[in-house]
Each structure stands twice: as structure tokens, then as C-alpha cells.
């Protein structure tokens, strides 16, 4: 087990997901020579994105192995997995338990958002009134009111909060072990102002993405201690900074894209530590949490972050999550209640 | 063993009454003997788990590899069909074959028997995804709209209620995937025939292409045999908008498989709507443009006289194909589509229709899980050729226990060689002298089957004590086989030296940009295959050991084939397998072919890299564990546990390459010995085969003769020292 590591990377086809996979391969092969085999399990909702990412990673690995003559054997596998469909989540749990005896890293990277596009008028206003905040938080993104999934839950809540929690609960006994790391990728814009204790299921919010990420952070605060003390499972929370992400870049045209890049650079030069801009830098914190974080020295209560200097050199930032124990407990209770409900609904689902 | 169908309380036939019957050409027909008076064959007993009592060996685990190899072949001989000499098997896995048969019967208004209704439903329910209840392209795959919608429709057409829990579960999955509107092209076509979709929403496949001159690079006659065999009848059915009459049941199904009311759907807007989960091979822009143009052409330009002319051409070509294949067609999909065209053109009660329906049982295969449709009408020649060769290679050719098996198998192979040419004008090549994959009536030459059959025949007839068999096949006939084989080697600018599957590569690879199927890769033209090339080398090489006919040409052919093999080795030392799982399978064939030309671990970097790759995949228990997903990802994926078939393949590869690390070989052999049952058999494990990169298919006999070969070769390591 020591010399074979298995990493599950959800949404590996996104820009950040791809960089996480590449850095994992590179850094394990150079800094963790005790590891002989690494298996990266990529997930997506569709088959062709899986084959594309694996092809790309294979080619990357081959080049790396030729250049550095590293001995690490890298193999790949995949799961088709839709976080807005609980039967799909159960299928993922079933398939993982069938195929593997352990999971060492789970990067909860994929996330659901309702980004529909850019509100140009708002963007123009914000550019003149508060440009740094505008291009850090993305005040002009169009999300709309939270939509429901086919399971009747708020889709963003289900995908970003409940489904990952449910999956962890189902595979904990069989696949997670002391030393396994859950790496929760949140966002720099998960602000407590979006949280509504009366809408934990995020069915009414107009900021469903930010709210879901904040709830994820609350859930983390409510669970990491017990997971570690009882089962030795580590949970690390991070935000990857502001970078060109698959959540919005594909909705842009070339003019918008260049304007965005220019504004990002300007923010960085004005001292913003968040503007990593490129997913390679954004993957710093996830990889640090996976390979370097030491629970004896580093606190799991902290929110780590990918960060840069003005000139773009990589930094790791640390911040505290702004929360109350009461709200964290509320989210945990809500999610536990849902878990019970879905365990009951799905109790006869598997038939073989 | 309790199957899901048992847990649901579904009806079941009396499994003791099924019988597999064959004829001298290896036809496999399952009949239900109500009287139960006829004696079931050993294979029937084995397959239906009905009072099967093969000889048991003592001690339960073989004490050494030689004994284990013997037991494996002994078991195989026990289930050999006495009359035909074949080794029957369930060639299952794909889940898009029964839909053709069921649609054809429903469309042609040919009633289903109660027996087949019961057992087809059982099979489909038993092969549903254990968690989401849907079906995929194949039984080992994730659920897709294609698999789920067509199998759901089959269950409804065969009488299952929409409120049955299995259907409720499947329907829920289908709805979550967006409903049947997201079907890939073939699904849309089947549903259109059943009047559960509209032809206006299916991309065109105009049969007029067949009227173009053959020199046109995209003439269908240049396409891969399976693809053109399917598009010929599908083009007719599409052009003529053939569909079933609407009835109450079809109305009900219409309301069940879509997320919106049927009448509110404008199908013409959904030609390119394919669910993301199904879409393995997205359309190129070229194809989308071509489809738009062709749709316009079909709607506004194509005159009636041209439609009539094209229809006539199609039925003529179909009838030629029926003559070439004795009404089988190349495989069940084209068979079912052809049947519908013949029904429309010739009539349901015509003698032609009777001949078609006579062949239908050749594709249905009974299992304890229910009745499935095989990928082709069987694996007869392929399995027999290997079984005979490996029995010899393992050192048992002169063992009297196997004399009968070898003679029966040999005679089957001799009977199976083609001795007639195809109908003129049917876009087929010279075939007399070649061998098929399944049976002589099926009529399609395959390169590797021809090569392996020649090798098997030569091996057996040159074994002391079997010389009398030489009289049963003339030297001329073997020369004809070599002629066909040599004619299949590609010599053009591209892929020189390589062998493809059925024919030479006749069309440009750019045609793949027009691949409309969405679910299969590399289907438009023939492609070079490492495994077919390897087998061809083996056949040609073995021939030269016994006969100087065309020696120089054969030497050249082998040399260019070897160059091709070497050029296709991947940087990690592996070869990608297109017909078996995957790198282990192709690696075995490549190393065997290379070994016949003197390439071994000690003298070849190619072989060293290949051996290192394979050896690095050995698991702690000594076995090998390649998963089908390797084929999909083009990257080695480990299966959840070691399996005997990949272990046998790896062991064979390393032994023939003369790999020096003895411990690797020992552990693999011991794994095979330990996994063997006390009757010499092996249990079914992970799927062994694949086609078109995306579909898994079972080869149940592999576990018997490949393990036998591996153990036999391993035993000889020490025996020869």
C-alpha cells in the first residue's frame, strides 16, 4: 500500500483538474521516490472527456519519463459520475469499492455552477467603481436563481456539498485509511454573506455557487476533527485563487478573454495575492495539501490558498474561515438528515 | 445461483430441456425439447449447468504444469461437439444485437415464441447495470441512452409491463440521461422502424452512393465489411421511411421513453442530438455539413425514379449478399436489417424470407442467464484452429486421449475452407481458399483465421500417426489458402506489410471523419491490425516449414510484416490490441510472431522492452490483471483481480520470447495451476475480447486452450533442459 498510491480527481478534464494531475505525477516522481506506482482515477460526466484527458496525461507522463528517467509507474482509470444524480453517486461508490482496496487522495475538484455568461453593463460599471474587487470576485457573472436537479435538491448544493459528503460516507470504511487525504477545493469568493440558514439546500439563492462553497467549508469545519481523530483520515480545505477556470472561460469570446487576462494582471500588480491567473499556479495549494501538509504541524482548520507574488512566483497563503460553530453544526445536521433519507431511498437500488 | 431475474420472480423455462444442435458446418442452434427425451451433449450440460459430470482428477490441484495442461485440454475435449468437431461457446457481451432481431420480427409480423420471450427478457434483466438498472453498449459498460432505450423497448415489446420494477428502474435512468431523444444514430434508426421515433430525425444514409463508380474514394464498396453491410439495408429503410404500424403498445412506449410528450417533439431538429454519455466519437464538421446537404437533397431534390432505382439496387445487392452468406449476412445486425428489406420487397411469405428466418436461430444462444444474441453466428473456426494448434504445441498431439478431438477438429477445419467465389458485382474479393471466423456458410474470409487454420491443419497432419489426414485436403487447397492470405497483405503507400481483418485497406483513412455511428471507432475502412498481422506471420511461417510454394514471396511478406509490427511498438514496449484485452493480448501475438523470426529477449531490444512491460504488470499473486478499460483509454488499466486468460497470454509471451527471469514465469504458472478446477476447467472471469475500441465481447474458450498452451509450454522449459 505504501508504494502504490491511488488518487481520485473529480472533474479532471477542467483546467485545474488537469494541472493537479500533472503536478501530482511530477512531484510524486521527484520527491516521493518510495512510491513505485501511482494510479490516477479521473472522473467526468461523459466518456469522451475522460479519454481526452487520459490521452493528454499519458503523453505528458511519457515525456516526463523520458526526460527525467523517473521510475514511477503511472496508470489511469476512470469513472463516469454525475454529482447531480444520487444514483450516479451510488454507482461511483460501488465501482470504486469493486476496483480498489484503498484511495490515498481524493481531490474534490469538480463543481457545478450555473454561470450563464457576463453582464456587460455591470462589468463596465464595476470596472470604473471597484475594479479590483470586480475582477477578484467576479461581480458581473450571471448565475440566476438556484435551479433544482432531477433529484429535487438544489443542483449546486447537491453537486458541491451533498454528493461529495455522501460518497465519502459510503467509501470510508472500505477505501479510506489512516493517511488518506480528502482535499476540498473551495473558492476565494465563498463569503459568509451568501449563507442563509433557512436555505441550506440552496434552492432560492442567486449566488448558489459561492453559497455552496461556503457550506462546503462549514461542513469541513464540522467534520475534519472527528474524521482525523476517529479514522486517521485527513481533510484539507483550500481555495485555488483566481485563475482562468473552466467554469467561465469557455463562455467567453476572444475579446472578453484578453480583457479578463489584462485585468487579472493589473490586479496582481496592484498587490492581490489571489490572482494566480494560470491553473498551473492555482494547483499549488491542492498539491501542497496532498503531498506536503503535515497534520502534526499544519492545522486542518485553516483554509490554505494558492497565491502569487506581484511577479508571479508561487506562494501558499493561509487564512481563517469566517464561521460560527452553530452554522457549521446546522449544515452538518442538514446533510446527515439528507444522507439518512437517501440511504433509505436507495436501500434496494443495487441488484446483482 | 440466484440471478436478478429470480429475485424479481420472473418466469423461467425448464433449463433441462434445452439442447444445442449443430451440423457439419458448425451451425449452432438451440432447441427446446419439450419431451426431454433426446440426450443433451456434454456441452449442453456444461452450458446449462444440467447434470454436468465431467471426469474429475486426483489430486484436485494438478501437481505440476504438465498435468494441469493435460487436464485443460482433456476438459476441452470433453465439451467438444461430437458431430461437428467444434467447441461451441456463448459469444456474448454486446447489448445492441437483440434489438435488431426483435425489431425485425415485430416489423415483419413474425410472432415470438413464449420460450424466447421468457428467456430473452431474463437475459436482458440479468445484464442490467446492478446500480442504475440501465444498459450500456455492452454488458461491462456504463449505462447509455442507446443501450437503455433499446433494451427497455425490447422488454416492453416482449410483454413486460411498464410498472415492473426492472423497467421502472431503467426508465428512471433513461429519463435522467435526457430520454431516448439522445440516442446515437443506430438507436434512432431502430426506434424509427418501430415507429417510436421519426426518420426525419435520423441522419441520412442514402443508398445512391452505391450507384457511384467504384473509383470514387468514398464508394461504400471500399468501406469496412461490417459498416457497409449495415448501411446498405439501413439506407433503404431510411430512404423509404419504413416503419411499423402504430398500435396501442407502441403508443404506450412512446409515452414512456421521452421526457416530453411524443407529439410535442420536432424530431427533425434532433438529428445530431446525442447524449454526452453515449457520444464516444463526436461528429466532425465535415460530417455535419455532409449530413445537412444530404438531408436537403433527400427532402427537396431526390426524385422518385431515383429512389426506385436505388431501392432496386439495394435489394439486388442484399440478395447477392444472401447468396454469398447462405442467408446469414456477415453478422446479426445486418442480417436483421436485410430481413426487413427482404420482407418489404419480396413479401413476408416469400421463399427468400423463409430462408432468412431459417437462419435466425444461428445467432441466438442460450445461457443459464437467459437467451442472448451472439456477436456473429459463432467463433467456430477461430476456436478450433487454436484448440488444435495449442494441443500440439503443448506436447499432447501424440497422446491417444486427444486423437479423436484432433481428428474431429481437423475435419471441421477442412470442411470449412471456402471453395466457391462470391457473386460477381457484390464488391467482394477472391475468397476460394480462405477461411472464415465462424462457419463456411457465413462466407467472409478473415486474414488471421485463414492463417491460423492453415497452421492448425499443417500441425496436425504432420504429427506422426496423423499422416492419413493429408489425403483429406489437397496440397492445391493449401496453396489456395496461401494465395488468399498473401493477397490480403497491404502493399500500398500506407501501412505496408500490415494485414487488416477481412480485406485489403481500400478506402482512405480520412473517411473516418465521416464516421456517423458515434459509438464505435475505426469503422469506416479497414485498418491495419497488429494481431491480424502477427497471426498471418505465424501462418505463413509455419507453411514454409512444410512447403516451398511461393517461398520468396512469403519471405518478403513476412519481413515487411515484421517491420510493420516493430514500427508499431509503443514507447513503453507494448502493442495496442484491437480484438482482445488489450496490451497483454497484442503483446502475446507480437512476441510469438517475432520469435518465429529469431527475435528473443537475448538479442532484441524490441523484445526486451516488450518483456519488461509485461513483467511489470505481474500482480503479487503471480497472475496478470488487465481490464477491458485498457482498450477504451489506450492505457493499461488494472482489473480488480488477476485472471487466468491474461495470465496465460503473458506467460505464453514471456516463454516464447525466452524471458530469463524464472521467478516471473514460475509464479504465473503456479497461479494458473491453482486456479484450475478439479475437472480441468477454469471459471469464467473478466471479458476477453473487444472490437472497435469500445465494445467488449466474450471468448469463453480462451480460458481453456490458452491456459493449456501456457502450461504446456512452461512444462517444456524444464523438460527440454
From TrEMBL, chain A:
One of its GO terms (cellular component) is mitochondrial outer membrane. Gene3D superfamilies: NAD(P)-binding Rossmann-like Domain (3.40.50.720). InterPro entries: Ergosterol_Biosynth_ERG27, NAD(P)-bd_dom_sf. Pathway: Steroid biosynthesis; zymosterol biosynthesis; zymosterol from lanosterol: step 5/6. One of its GO terms (biological process) is ergosterol biosynthetic process. Keywords: Lipid biosynthesis, Lipid metabolism, NADP, Oxidoreductase, Steroid biosynthesis. SUPFAM superfamilies: NAD(P)-binding Rossmann-fold domains. Its EC number is 1.1.1.270. GO terms for molecular function: 3-beta-hydroxysteroid 3-dehydrogenase (NADP+) activity. Belongs to the short-chain dehydrogenases/reductases (SDR) family. ERG27 subfamily. PANTHER family: 3-KETO-STEROID REDUCTASE ERG27, DEHYDROGENASE. This is 3beta-hydroxysteroid 3-dehydrogenase.
UniProtKB/TrEMBL annotation, chain B:
Its EC number is 5.4.99.-. It holds the Pfam family SQHop_cyclase_C. CDD domains: SQCY_1. GO terms for biological process: ergosterol biosynthetic process; triterpenoid biosynthetic process. GO terms for molecular function: lanosterol synthase activity. Residues 381-715 form the Squalene cyclase C-terminal domain. Residues 113-355 form the Squalene cyclase N-terminal domain. One of its GO terms (cellular component) is lipid droplet. Keywords: Isomerase, Lipid biosynthesis, Lipid metabolism, Repeat, Steroid biosynthesis. It is an enzyme of class 5 (isomerase). NCBIfam families: squalene_cyclas (TIGR01787). Belongs to the terpene cyclase/mutase family. This is Terpene cyclase/mutase family member. It comes from Starmerella bacillaris. The lineage of its organism: Eukaryota, Fungi, Dikarya, Ascomycota, Saccharomycotina.
